[in-house]
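Fold it.
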Amino acid sequence: MSKQVVFKHSKTNRVEIYHVVNLLRNLEGKVIGKDATDTTQLYSEKQAVPSTDTLKGTIVIDSTIGKNTKFFFLWTTSPISVVLYRPNGTAIDDTSLEYKRDDGARTVLIEIAGIAESGKWLYEVTDHQGGQVEISVQSNVREDTQPIRVTTTTSNSLITETPAKTNIYAQVQRGYAPILKADVVATVERPRPHAPVKVNLLDNGAGADFTEDDGVYSGVFLDFVTATCPNCRYNVKVTAVDTDGTAQVPISTFTGGVLPIRPPNRIDENTNITEPVGPFYRVVSGGVIQAPLTIPPGDNFPPSRITDLKVAATSYDNQTVTLAWTAPGNDLDRGTAYEYHLRYSEIFDVFYKDFMNGTELSNSNLTVGNLSSPKTFGEMETMTILMPSKDENITYFFAVRARDAPGNIGPPSNIVSATIVYDDPDEIIIITTESPDTTLDTETTFRFQTTTPNLLLSVKPEADMQSGEISIFLVIGCSVAGVLLVIAAAIILSKYLNKVKYLSDEEGVENNAFKAAE
C-alpha cells in the first residue's frame, strides 16, 4: 500500500524554510514515532480561585491519547476541593477511588484507570479562602494511533543585540502530517514584576511565517524589558488547541506497520484533500530565552516585508489592475502599519535595482482601496489601480512596502507584473504574472476575454524583487527554443534527403556501368 499526503505549500524562500525545518527536526525524533507510550502534556494553567465562587473549566481528551491519564491540582494557600466530570456526566470527587489528596504536597491527584473517554472533561475547584491553583493534565498515547504532537523552537535563545527580538515557531502534526487552522498561542513569562505576554502564532505565510499551511506556526516576540537581573530569563510555553472543529489535516495512508513517508515538498493545490482533526489540546515548553539587556526606548522596528504580492485581476476595458497582499504589522508582525508606498515601472531591471526608481501611486490612482489606511497584520489587502495607458504590449511591474507612524519603513515586496496585449477587436489576451517571495514555484495566469470573460489557465513560473527572473521572458524563451528546434529538424531532414539522393545517384551510376559491361 502506498502513502500519499496532500496539502498546500505557498511560495517562499527555501533557505529560510530549511533553517526552521532543521531546528524543528532536531526535536522531532524525541516526540514522533519513537515511543508510542510516552507522556503527553495536555494542559497546564495557573488560575485564581474566587473565594465566593467555583472555578470551572474544560479539558479535551482526544482519540489519540487516554492511557494512564492523570489530573493534577496543586494549591498554594488553603486546601481545595475538586470535582471532575467525565464526558458522560459521571462525577469523580473525594469519595471516588480515583481521587487522592495529599495535604503535605498540597495536591489533589485524580488518576483514570484504563483508557480515559474521549471528549470534554469538566472540572470544578472550590477554595473558600480564595487563592491560586495550578492545573496540569498528562496522558499517554494510545496504541495504533497517529499522535498529535507539538514541537517548538526559537530563532534566538540568547539575545545580545538591540533592538531585541526573537521568532517563536511551533510545528503541529498528527503523525507526520501537518495540522492546519489550529489555534496556537505562545505565552512568554517575563522577569518580575512584568506580566506575561501572549503571542499568536500563525501559519499564513506572512511576516515571521515562511510558508502558508505547512503546519509550522510562527510569531515574533518583541516585549523584552530593561534588565533588572544579571541573567534575565523569559520562559516560553506554547499551547495548540482546537475546540470548535476547525483544524484540518491532509488525508494520508500508511505503509503497513511502518512510520508514514514524508510528504513531498510541493503538492498541486487543486488536489488538496483534508479532514477534520477533531477537538484537541496540547501544551509544551518552548524553552528559555535569555536577555541581559537594556532595551532602548521608542519604536525600533519597521513593518515586516510583504512577500505575497500578487495580481488578483485585470481589466482591459476599465484600464485597471487589481493587486492583493497580506497586511504587515506596525512593528514587524505586530499591530497595524501607518501607510503603504505603492510603485510601478515599465522597466524591470531598473525597478529591481531600486524600488524608488518606480513611479509612485497615490489614492487618486485607485478605484478600490486606500493606501493611507492599512489593515491589521494578517488581513488581506486589495487595491485596484487605474493605469495611465492601455496601449498594446505594455508590461507594468509593481511592488509595495509599508511605513509606520514614526517613519520606520519596511523593505520592498516581491515584484509582480501585468501585461496587456491587444490582439484584435474581438479577442483581448491579458497576461498577468504573479511572483510571491521566491525563486521557485510561482505562477503566470493567462486571461482570455472573448465571449466568455475571466477564463483562467495557469502555467509557471516568474520572479521577484530578489530573484531577478521573469516568467514572461521564459515564455518568450520557450517560443524561441521551439522555433530553433523546428529549424534544427529541418536542417537534419534536409541532410537526410540529400544523403538519400546521393545514394540513389550512386546506385544509378553503378547500374549503368554494369549494363555497359554486359
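The mean pLDDT is 77.
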